[in-house]
Specification:
- With 168 residues, the protein is of the alpha+beta class.
- The chain is built from seven helices and four strands; from the N terminus they run αββββαααααα.
- The chain has a four-stranded antiparallel β-sheet, covered by helices on one side.
Length: 168
């Protein structure tokens, strides 16, 4: 029998409560966990779909359906999930702010303490709020120009001149 939102919310009965298609809610003393049991190359596998209440029943079902689609294509959903997590980590490391911090760490030794502190302050105030969370590969000349023009509109022309050479 398929699970309902009410049952999932209210149940305290420990154990596995199946929804269908291999998905179940595993209720333990520590919490409620969505799991998907599947078979690949004749071996039973288990995929974690998330923790209730962060992942609701509808979201867990959608994740189950996505995993089933991957299986139909011969792709192990567990491997796909791990690969996605790795790619997210790489993407986070390549955000403009992260790359700028790495650049600052390398250049700081050759810069004076005042210049290094001012560089970070300018980035924090005039650059990172606009493009800091953007992947570095997406930062184009027009985007950088727009960011510098925002600082210029604040009336800090000297800062913009410095940023133009330091950030780009």
């Amino acid at each position: 029998m398929a699970l309902t939102d009410t049952f999932v919310k209210q149940t305290k009965q420990l154990g596995k409560h199946f929804d269908g298609g291999g998905m179940y809610l595993h209720v333990m003393a520590a919490g409620k966990y969505w799991r998907l049991k599947y078979y690949l190359a004749g071996k039973e596998r288990l995929l974690s779909l998330g923790v209730y209440p962060a992942i609701k029943l509808a979201q867990a079902r959608k994740a189950r359906d996505t995993a089933r689609e991957l299986l139909a294509q011969g792709i192990d959903p567990s491997v796909a999930k791990r690969q996605a997590r790795i790619e997210q980590g790489i993407a986070a490391a390549n955000l403009f702010e992260a790359v700028a911090l790495e650049y600052h760490a390398k250049m700081r030794e050759g810069w004076g303490a005042t210049h290094a502190a001012r560089w970070i302050r300018h980035m924090e105030k005039d650059i990172w709020p606009y493009i800091g969370r953007m992947p570095i590969r997406n930062v184009t000349v027009p985007i950088m120009l727009d960011t510098l023009q925002r600082a210029a509109r604040r009336g800090v022309g000297d800062t913009v001149h410095r940023l133009r050479f330091e950030a780009g």
